[in-house]
């Protein structure tokens, strides 16, 4: 998979950041949600999956 940087609202080069892939998908870099109470509200988390939190402002790069 090849990533193409789309944009970030981080001034330090970390998360949150959004990428497009050559497979027609998006990759989102954000803080992983680890809180059990929050994860209990999510549906069908499969092995190998993670939920990340990003601010809505990041999606302005998807124009």
Write structural notes for this entry:
It is a single chain. With 63 residues, the protein is mainly beta. Helices cover 6% and strands 30% of the residues. The chain has 1 helix and 5 strands, in the order ββββαβ. It has a 3-stranded antiparallel sheet with strand order 1-2-3, with no helix packed on it. A two-stranded antiparallel sheet has the order 4-5. β2 and β3 form a beta hairpin. The longest helix has 4 residues. The two termini are 23 Å apart. The relative contact order is 0.27. The model has no long low-confidence stretch (mean pLDDT 93). This is ABC-type xylose transport system permease subunit. It comes from Nonomuraea roseoviolacea subsp. carminata.
Tell me the radius of gyration. 13 Å
Regions with little confidence, pLDDT below 50 for 5+ residues: none
Number of domains: 1
Shape summary:
globular
Count the E strands. Answer: 5
The number of helical runs is 1
Distance between the termini: 23 Å
> Portion of residues in helices?
under 10%
Q: Which key phrases capture this entry?
A:
1 helix; 5 strands; 3-stranded antiparallel beta sheet; ABC-type xylose transport system permease subunit; mainly beta; 63 residues; 30% strand; two-stranded antiparallel sheet; 6% helix
How are the SSEs placed, and which strands pair?
Blueprint: E1 3-8, E2 17-21, E3 26-29, E4 31-32, H1 36-39, E5 52-53
Antiparallel strand pairs: 1-2, 2-3, 4-5
């Amino acid at each position: 998979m090849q990533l193409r940087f789309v944009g970030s609202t981080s001034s330090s080069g970390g998360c949150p950041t959004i990428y497009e892939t050559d497979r027609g998908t998006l990759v989102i870099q954000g803080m992983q949600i680890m809180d059990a109470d929050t994860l209990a509200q999510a549906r069908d988390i499969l092995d190998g999956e993670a939920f990340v939190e990003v601010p809505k402002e990041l999606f302005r790069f998807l124009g």
